[in-house]
Each structure stands twice: as C-alpha cells, then as structure tokens.
Amino acid sequence: MEKRAIGGQGLTTSALGLGCMGMTGSYGPVDDAESTATIHRAIDLGVNMFDTADVYGPFTNERLLGRALAGRRDKVIVATKFGGAEMDDAGTVTGGANGRPEYVRASVERSLRNLNTDRIDLYYQHRVDPKVPVEETFGALGELVAAGKVRYLGISEARSGTIRRAHAAAPLSAVESEYSLFSRDVESNGVLETVRELGIGFVGYAPLGRGFLTGAVRSASALGPTDLRRIFPRFEEENLEANLALLRRIEKIAADLGVGGGRLALAWVLAQGEDIVPIPGTRRRTHLTENVEAATAPLDADTLAALAEAVSGGEIAGARTSPQDAGIER
Predict the structure, then answer these.
(1) Structural domains of the chain sorted by starting position, each given as residue range(s) with its CATH number in brackets
(2) Is the Cα dihedral 133, 154, 172, 326 positive or negative?
(3) How many helices and strands, by DSSP H and E, does the chain display?
(4) Which residues are catalytic?
(5) What is the mean predicted confidence (pLDDT) over 111-119?
(6) pTM flag (> 0.70)
C-alpha cells in the first residue's frame, strides 16, 4: 500500500489506517476473535496504523489491540489518545476532558500497560481541556517524547488557534478530526488550512460517516439499543431521512462506476491530499478488504467534480457530534 508522510517530524504511515473503536462496542456486538483476525489481515494487506484510545471501553480497546499485536508490534504504528474524559485506574469516569500535566503522565503509563508496549508511536490529546492552557499539556507531552515513551504527538478536534499553540509548545505530527463527504467542517473552519501551513498531517476519522455512507443505516429504528449512533443528531429519524436523499446521489455515482458507495466515499477522502490519512473503522475482514480496495482506486477529475456537486456540506441535516461530547472546540 502507498505510504504517506504525516507531519514533518518523520512519521510515515500507510495511506489508510484502521480505527479500532468499534471492536469493543459502540456499534454493536463484540467479537474479539474476528476483531483480532481483522487486525492481522490489515497488517497483511499493508495497513500499518492502528487507532485506539484509553476511553474506548474504557481500556478494553487498548488491551485488545495490545494482545492482537503480540509478535507484530514492530511492524505497526500504534496511535492512542488520552484526556477525552478523566478516569481512574478502574475505568470509572471521574470528570470531563483533562489536560493537566500530572494526568498526562499517569495516562501514558496506563496506556503503555494496556497496550503491552514500551512506547506509543502517536499520542493524541483526545479532547481539549478548557481549564488547562494547551501549552502546559504539550509541555508535558514534549517531556514524554524526550523520555522515549512517546514518538510523535497529535491533537484531536481542536480549533486552528489551539493547534498553533500546541505546535509551538511541542511539534505536532498529526491533527485528527472527523472528515468525510458527510462532514467537511475542517475545509471551512481553517483547520485544514492551518495544518498545511504548519506542515502537520491530518488524520480523518469516521471517513464513512459512521457507516452512513456505506448504506448500512437506512432507519434510526434499525440501530441497536446500545449503538453509539443513537446519540448523534444526524441519525435521528427526521434528519436521517433528509440525509438519505444525499446518500442516494452518491450511490447513483457509485453505481455508474460499478463500485459501492462506501468505497467511493473513502476514495474521495484519500483524493483530498497526500497529507491526509483516513482511518475507517471496521470489526470484520470483509469490510476491511473493501476499504483497502478504495486505497488503490484513484478517482478521476470528472468523478471528483460529480461528487462535489452531489453533496454540499451545508445540506447535511443534524449536528455531527452529540451535545454530550465536551472538549470538541467548535
């Protein structure tokens, strides 16, 4: 698979990463054996970046990834996150976003144990803590880089000004935010412009619109009772019905090309720049193969133009994040 440089600090990854969040819940039943097989198959197919976070589970996602990578650790880039919510060592949430230096130091040690590794390749501040200057958080993160516990740094869902301040305190390799045909905020809010000006890479999560762009979600009532998408306004029945009209436009273009809508949507993200690495999440090997095929199917100018005409970010019904998701800088 094609490799892409992420930022100017030396980090290089596969053009496509694998988001692991759904492997331990969030979108349906858990199957550790299939998730592990999916991780192994991803490595065989050339995917080398695996994205997790301490809050996924909590902790169970990092532990699953750590087990799956036993004997394969040196072949991959492990990306994890801290501070999305304050937690104790039992996994009990004790507060909101936490960027205090002492919490940073405790979190990295906990993630190293959970992942069964001696270093984290890419470590993100998961959500910005409005109570702590980002310079203090990234000062502590810079110390972890110097100590060899972390190789590269990132920040998730931050505004342009915060990205600049964090990067000045300790060089960032990556900014992670939601990005898809369904979520294009970063094109208009200055985030993409800022990371490109500063030479920072961009990692796009939910590039398939949390599964919406694959056509897998046609009705809110079809979502299981524990499905995380139930809390997102875009998946409320009225909004979902409006958004299906947009999906049908994408599916028409995909059908004319003889490919699936999800594959087309993922190829679109990959086409937005060689400094962008999407990290679609999947628990199943079949879906993984479909996603990897998108990485080898470049889109021509006519198809890109047709997609741009079919979907305008302003037409999407419903907010992309839940009201409970504190720490996203809007």
Answers:
(1) 3-315 (3.20.20.100)
(2) negative
(3) 11, 12
(4) 56
(5) 98
(6) yes
